[in-house]
Structure to design on (124 residues):
């Protein structure tokens, strides 16, 4: 399951990363560039993985989407601020800061999607 989620999330990350770089190149602050890329990517990951990765076949998908959006708003803001901190306080390049934060966000997203769709966390 985590391999399939990794594949879907990898595509989502490429979408996120490309938008992050493009929007940053346009002069948008690092935290805002991350919010744009991440928002588009997490919506893609949700719709691509809820049924195909986690094999959720129940109803109330709208309710799960709302819960996922609430979680992602918090997660994206936290990750964006963390990336911004790494960039401005520690002098890391925005792209490097984004890459360093990615494993944390991947694992947290996998756990949340698992909890949302199966009712349990999946420890690796």
């Amino acid at each position: 399951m985590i391999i399939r989620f990794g594949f879907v999330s990898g595509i989502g990350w490429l979408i996120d990363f490309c938008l992050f770089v493009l929007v940053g190149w346009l002069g948008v602050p690092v935290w805002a560039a991350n919010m744009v890329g991440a928002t588009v990517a997490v919506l893609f990951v949700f719709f691509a993985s809820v049924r195909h990765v986690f094999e959720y076949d129940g109803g109330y998908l709208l309710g799960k989407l709302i819960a996922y959006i609430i979680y992602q708003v918090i997660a994206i803001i936290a990750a964006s601020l963390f990336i911004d901190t790494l960039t401005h306080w520690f002098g890391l390049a925005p792209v490097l800061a984004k890459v360093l934060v990615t494993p944390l966000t991947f694992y947290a997203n996998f756990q949340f999607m698992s909890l949302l769709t199966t009712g349990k966390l999946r420890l690796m």
Q: What stands out?
A: Residues 58 and 117 are 9 Å apart (CA to CA). The radius of gyration is 15 Å. The chain has one domain: 2-118.
